[in-house]
Amino acid sequence: HPSRASCEQIICHTATVLSLYRRVIRIARTWQAQSGVTSDTETERKYIVQEARTLFRQNQQLTDQESIKKCLEECEARIEIGLHYRNPYPRATYLPPLGLATQKGRKLRAQQRLRKQAKPIYLQSHDET
């Protein structure tokens, strides 16, 4: 049986997650593309809803408190960045493939770890392309 404190945390996280999800859907309903073109607005609204559904479903099985916290932080960061820049798409990061050198040379595994650590919070759910 889970402890009472962990149940309270789960309930608190559930309420926070649902509140964020509703906020994203409300943003999508009122979203206006920066270009002012109706088709761009519709495309961006659909993207916002689809991205929210995909990421929330992808993470609904999380039980680790730290992972849940990181996902919530990512969501909040993406909301704020999207609203600020009027762009719903993730902002690109510019790291050359082997651009983070280590003192011992350019070992691929170390490079991959450094790239993952350097990835901004708002892109944690996105795979490298």
List keywords for this structure.
129 residues, single chain, mainly alpha, 4 helices, flat, 0% strand
Question: What do these coordinates show?
Answer:
The chain has helices spanning 4-30, 38-58, 65-85, 108-118. The protein is built from 4 helices and no strands. With 129 residues, it is mainly alpha-helical. Belongs to the complex I LYR family. This is LYR motif containing 1. Residues 16-79 form the Complex 1 LYR protein domain.
The number of distinct β-strands equals: 0
Number of helices: 4
Class derived from helix and strand content: mainly alpha
Helix content: 55-70%
Distance between the termini: 42 Å
User: Which spans have pLDDT < 50 for at least 5 consecutive residues?
Assistant: none
What portion of residues belong to β-strands?
A: under 5%
What is the 3D shape? flat
Quick check: average pLDDT? 82
Give the radius of gyration.
18 Å
Order of helices and strands: HHHH
Fold blueprint:
Elements: H1 4-30, H2 38-58, H3 65-85, H4 108-118
Please outline what is shown here.
Pfam families: Complex1_LYR. This is LYR motif containing 1. By secondary structure, the protein is mainly α.
